């Protein structure tokens, strides 16, 4: 079968289309003929080599979430799932392929497209639990840093739905700002967060060298939650900024969906899949062969929402 592998870590052109053996579903798994493959920020971070301490090697197939039709089932899986359309989490990788074996899967409602399923499937629950990690409460103000990605657009919608007094965003252009306002944002800042306003909660999808400056944008007792590192690691001494502002009682925390139980993730995902008020944002649908182009668009900061690949 056809798949995309990381032939060389670094630039997007390090991705290559090749032929690999078709996976065989193990006990508890289904084999999915993919119809839509989500292109996520973590895929780009792995491809750049940022996470090579995890043991990633050339030949690795990126991609963590897919949607498609079940064509085979492993031992212990209901045979009735054959022919059903499902969303599935492939783990840290394996998704950029024509067929994917996975044990974490969920049937997709008829009203939800496969493209929308991979735009929501991971990003929606991650945004939900990131706000929970921040101990967000109705009436508080929220800033979403790097809001144009799929987690960011989800976080905006959820904060508004759950009673935020105001939701500010950082983004790269006025055009994007207007699109974010259409999703519920009330204030648009540039990437540096220029301005004197402060917030109760910051959901940070960027990290990077400028992270410490965003502690200045927290109210007293404010909480900053880092959900992604698409901008790279922060400075090694970034915690000194918190200590210098000791009397403001600021909190910094990281969040990974790995710390949430599969049952809790499934419950939230199922609710979001069926919600009529939660909007999936698909930037563009490209062919699987165009995975390198998809990654280049992410590197260039062009993506609003999520790019989806189709075999």
Automatic annotation (TrEMBL):
InterPro entries: ADH-like_N, ER, GroES-like_sf, NAD(P)-bd_dom_sf, Zinc-ADH_QOR/CCCR
Domain Enoyl reductase (ER): residue ranges: 10-309
Keyword hit for NADP: yes
One Pfam assignment: ADH_zinc_N_2
Keywords per UniProt: NADP
Entry superkingdom: Bacteria
Entries under SMART domains matching the protein: PKS_ER
PANTHER family: QUINONE OXIDOREDUCTASE
Protein name: Zinc-binding dehydrogenase
């Amino acid at each position: 079968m056809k798949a995309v592998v990381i032939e060389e870590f670094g630039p997007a052109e390090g991705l290559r289309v090749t032929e690999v053996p078709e996976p065989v579903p193990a006990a508890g798994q289904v084999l999915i003929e993919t119809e839509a493959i989500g292109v996520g920020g973590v895929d780009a971070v792995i491809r750049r080599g940022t996470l090579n301490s995890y043991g990633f090697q050339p030949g690795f197939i990126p991609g963590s979430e897919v949607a498609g039709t079940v064509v085979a089932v492993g031992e212990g899986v209901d045979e009735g799932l054959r022919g059903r359309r499902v969303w599935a989490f492939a783990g840290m990788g394996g998704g950029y392929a024509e067929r994917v074996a996975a044990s974490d899967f969920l049937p997709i409602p008829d009203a939800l497209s496969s493209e929308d399923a991979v735009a929501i499937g991971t990003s929606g629950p991650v945004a939900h639990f990131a706000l929970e990690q921040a101990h967000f409460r109705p009436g508080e103000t929220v800033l979403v840093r790097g809001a144009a990605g799929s987690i960011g657009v989800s976080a905006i919608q959820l904060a508004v739905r759950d009673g935020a007094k105001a939701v500010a965003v950082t983004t790269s252009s006025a055009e994007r700002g207007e699109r974010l306002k259409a999703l519920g944002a009330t204030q648009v800042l540039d990437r540096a967060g220029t301005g004197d306003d402060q917030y109760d909660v910051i959901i940070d999808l960027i990290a990077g060298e400028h992270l410490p400056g965003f502690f200045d944008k927290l109210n007293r007792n404010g909480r900053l939650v880092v959900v992604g590192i698409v901008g790279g690691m922060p400075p090694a001494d970034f915690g000194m900024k918190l200590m210098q502002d000791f009397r403001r009682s600021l909190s910094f925390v990281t969040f990974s969906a790995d710390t949430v139980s599969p049952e809790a993730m499934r419950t939230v995902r199922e609710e979001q899949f069926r919600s009529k008020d939660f909007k999936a944002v698909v930037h563009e649908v490209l062919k699987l062969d165009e995975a390198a182009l998809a990654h280049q668009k992410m590197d260039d900061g062009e993506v609003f929402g999520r790019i989806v690949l189709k075999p």
